[in-house]
């Protein structure tokens, strides 16, 4: 019998430990459903997820020092982690009800941007088909969160919601099958990217074993990984010298979720010919316009999800909260209604991000493609006013190629987000989450990123742990 080498023994131990910790989360998931949950189990859930993250960090550190780890073990354990949640109860999340309702509307041949769930439930407008769907799936309709706003999800995402509905209406299992397909495709494209860049395929562990990703996607059922194959596919096409196909694929990524649009400038930077650059801009703009036609057909008013999100949604973002407080203080000092602070703060954040994106994309010449993408998307992640743990999926593929201690730390810190469900029941504790917990979540990340940046500035190189693999 062949002896297992030391790196693989450690990998087996870490994989087993993560499997047991995630299994414990799946075990208690029925008692943590969004409808009714045991408050005292919330710290247990968070502790288990943080514990799995700690073991994950050991595994990441191990393979980075010794590349003899088995890729087969990495893949099999990752599949096992996902299988644990295949029949679990979604923990403290209910976004999937919106996916299911939207999928039913689209599959029935209607535009999901026409009426809010609340309007359908109250029979305010809508066709006979909508009334029929209400009769068939009233339970799902009643559980859609923010029912007063029309759906925020772009048209390509709507297509996949409809496909899931066609497989099996309102089915958690059908939706999980959809997610695992996209997840595996993401892994395949990530392995192809690592091979293209001449890197160890074991780097894929950063994505494939991430406990927060696994829990947020396969237990909480968030749809964010649907964009990842399109993003990675666009980058691979670009690296292989595609003339224009990458722009079309990237437009489909934007059609799933808006954030990939922030990467477009990174693609343009290496293009040498003005005619080539103009062609890519036209292809991308035309494709995005066509994709979003179903959304813009209906007026983007205050009941539109994308408008409501952009104007007023705020959650779990200490940086935005600090800027908002500053603006409220300034406006009150000048006897101006503090309600205007929301607009001023959001415009200010957009200005900060635009400067940051321009600096990363066009000034930092020594940075490679994937690190630029990580810094741009990571900047948006940290600045966005409404912050959620599942957005972390946006960063993980880039972290496999351009690791960053600061961004990796979010794996263990973002689970603290769920403490907001622990504190609210008692009025005397209501300010603890906003005043303390959000800072515990993000202050270490900002500190680690500042440390990385100081090391970079001091050495004029990327820090050793954050070596830029994309600069070729």
Describe this structure in words.
- There is one protein chain.
- This protein is an all-alpha fold.
- The chain has four domains: 1-92 and 197-222, no CATH class; 96-172, no CATH class; 226-291, no CATH class; 314-472, no CATH class.
- Helices cover 63% and strands 0% of the residues.
- It contains 23 helices and no strands.
- It has helices at residues 6-28, 42-65, 71-84, 96-107, 117-121, 128-136, 138-143, 155-167, 172-196, 205-208, 211-218, 228-239, 245-256, 264-268, 274-291, 293-296, 305-312, 318-333, 341-363, 369-383, 396-401, 405-413, 432-459.
- The longest helix is centred in the C-terminal third of the chain and has 28 residues, at 432-459.
Shape: globular
Strand content: under 5%
Instruction: Count the beta strands.
Output: 0
The biggest sheet amounts to: none
**Domain count:** 4
Gyration radius from CA atoms, angstroms:
23 Å
Question: What is the first-to-last residue Cα distance?
Answer: 43 Å
Order of helices and strands: HHHHHHHHHHHHHHHHHHHHHHH
Helix-strand makeup class: mainly alpha
In helices, the fraction of residues equals 55-70%
Question: Which runs of at least 5 residues are low in confidence (pLDDT < 50)?
Answer: 462-472
Mean pLDDT: 88
User: Tally the helices: what do you get?
Assistant: 23
Show the helix and strand layout:
Layout: H1 6-28, H2 42-65, H3 71-84, H4 96-107, H5 117-121, H6 128-136, H7 138-143, H8 155-167, H9 172-196, H10 205-208, H11 211-218, H12 228-239, H13 245-256, H14 264-268, H15 274-291, H16 293-296, H17 305-312, H18 318-333, H19 341-363, H20 369-383, H21 396-401, H22 405-413, H23 432-459
Helix pairs in contact: 1-2, 1-3, 4-8, 8-13, 9-12, 12-13, 13-15, 18-19, 19-20, 22-23
């Amino acid at each position: 019998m062949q002896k297992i080498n030391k790196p693989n023994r450690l990998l087996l131990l870490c994989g087993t430990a993560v499997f047991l910790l995630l299994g414990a989360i799946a075990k208690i998931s029925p008692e943590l459903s969004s409808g009714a949950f045991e408050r005292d189990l919330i710290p247990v859930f968070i502790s288990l997820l943080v514990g799995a993250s700690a073991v994950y960090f050991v595994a990441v550190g191990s393979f980075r020092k010794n590349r003899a780890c088995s890729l087969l073990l990495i893949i099999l354990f990752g599949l096992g982690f996902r299988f644990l949640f295949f029949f679990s109860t979604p923990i403290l999340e209910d976004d999937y009800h919106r996916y299911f309702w939207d999928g039913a509307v689209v599959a029935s041949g209607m535009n999901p941007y026409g009426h809010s769930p609340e309007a359908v439930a109250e029979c305010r407008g809508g066709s006979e088909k909508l009334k029929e769907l209400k009769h068939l799936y009233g339970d799902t309709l009643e559980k859609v969160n923010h029912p007063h706003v029309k759906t925020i999800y772009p048209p390509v995402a709507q297509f996949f919601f409809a496909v899931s509905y066609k497989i099996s209406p309102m089915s958690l299992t059908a939706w999980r099958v959809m997610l695992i397909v996209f997840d595996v495709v993401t892994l395949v494209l990530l392995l192809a990217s690592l091979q293209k860049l001449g890197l160890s395929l074991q780097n894929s562990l950063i994505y494939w074993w991430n406990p927060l990703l696994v829990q947020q996607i396969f237990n909480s059922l968030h749809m964010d990984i649907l964009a990842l194959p399109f993003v990675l596919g666009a980058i691979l096409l670009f690296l292989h010298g595609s003339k224009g196909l990458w722009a079309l694929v990237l437009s489909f990524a934007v059609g799933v979720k808006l954030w990939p649009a922030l990467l477009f400038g990174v693609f343009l930077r290496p293009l040498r010919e003005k005619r080539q650059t103009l062609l890519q801009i036209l292809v991308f703009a035309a494709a995005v316009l066509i994709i979003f036609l179903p959304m813009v057909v209906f007026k983007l008013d205050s009941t539109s999800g994308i408008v409501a999100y952009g104007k007023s949604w705020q959650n779990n973002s200490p940086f935005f909260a600090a800027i908002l407080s500053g603006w409220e203080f300034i406006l009150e000092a000048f006897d101006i209604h503090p309600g205007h602070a929301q607009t001023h703060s959001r415009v200010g954040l957009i200005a900060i991000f635009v400067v940051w994106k321009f600096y990363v994309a066009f000034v930092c010449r020594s940075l490679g493609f994937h690190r630029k993408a990580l810094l741009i998307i990571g900047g948006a992640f940290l600045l966005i006013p409404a912050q959620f743990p599942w957005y972390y999926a946006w960063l993980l593929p880039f972290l496999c190629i351009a690791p960053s201690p600061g961004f990796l730390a979010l794996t263990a810190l973002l689970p603290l987000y769920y403490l907001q469900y622990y504190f609210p029941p008692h009025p005397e504790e209501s300010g603890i989450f906003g005043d303390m917990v959000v800072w515990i979540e993000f202050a270490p990340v900002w500190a680690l990123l500042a440390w990385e940046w100081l090391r970079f500035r001091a050495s004029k190189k990327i820090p050793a742990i954050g070596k830029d693999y994309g600069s070729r």
